[in-house]
Design goal:
Heat Shock Protein 90; 2 domains; binds adenosine-5'-triphosphate; five-stranded mixed sheet; two-stranded antiparallel sheet; single chain; about 20% strand; alpha+beta; binds magnesium ion; globular
């Protein structure tokens, strides 16, 4: 079933991008005409475009989700990885009045990671945290040395999770957001586990959420 779903997702991607491209061309054609009929057509084209975009995001999320075997792990810094993701989200955080604080242990040992893939996991966690704080708040990212390796705590002062959300958050397609796919956390978990890591969460409604991910440090020979 998984293989079938994966090839189906691939098959849908190409016609979908042809549809999108042509809708964009159609959009340009109608933009050049200044009649009420053309304006109505434009509105419909935009609806189709938005839905195509949603489908494309869903397909990409799904394909990322299935593409997690045979990682090529190389030594890397969890601090650097996290900093890159935070830098990426900085403009959005500013816009949303979210203050980002980092407490990175400068002596954090390196871990084995695949940069692109781990980036996607951290991205999903930070994206969720920001989505939980639409009216501002604080996001703390802290790294520390643990008994087995290194850990990252990501603490937000957002909406928190209900007991139902806490139970179901790692389920594929579980979401309580309009337009959410519900693949962010299952993908993150799968990626973290593919790095021999674990992910834990503590959350309280209206107070916030803390995600902790922990990775073993490679044994010295
Ligand atoms: N930091 C957080 N604060 C509050 N709720 C969260 C947080 N992170 C995850 N959740 C809850 O877990 C659910 C699942 O998260 P997940 O990232 O898998 O999907 P999503 O964010 O809803 O959609 P997608 O990530 O696909 O856009 C969310 O809908 C939300 O209810
Ligand atoms: Mg998400």
């Amino acid at each position: 079933m998984a293989t079938l779903a994966k090839s189906l997702a691939h098959e849908i991607k190409n016609p979908l991008s042809v549809i999108r491209m042509n809708m964009e061309l159609l959009h340009e054609d109608f933009e050049a005409i200044a009649t009420p009929e053309a304006r109505q057509a434009l509105a419909k084209i935009e609806t189709v475009n938005r839905q195509c975009e949603r489908l494309q995001t869903m397909l990409n999320d799904f394909l990322n989700f299935t593409r997690l075997t045979n990682l090529e792990l190389v030594p890397g810094s969890l601090n650097d990885q996290m900093q890159q993701v935070l830098t990426f989200f900085e403009p959005l955080a500013n816009q949303q009045n979210v203050t980002i604080r980092t407490y990175f242990d400068p002596d954090l040992p390196s871990i084995n990671l695949e940069p692109q893939t781990l980036h996607a996991a951290l991205l999903n966690l930070v994206k969720n945290a920001l989505e939980a704080m639409p009216d501002g708040g604080e996001l703390v990212a802290r790294t520390r040395i643990t008994r087995v390796g290194v850990a990252l705590d990501l603490i937000d002062t957002g909406c928190g999770m209900s007991s139902n959300a806490l139970l179901r958050m790692f389920e594929e397609f579980y979401t309580n957001k309009d337009g959410g796919t519900g693949l962010g956390l299952p993908t993150a978990k799968k990626i973290i586990e593919a790095h021999s890591g674990v992910i834990n969460v503590q959350s309280e409604v209206n107070r916030g959420t803390q995600f902790t991910i922990e990775f073993p440090t490679p044994k010295r020979i």
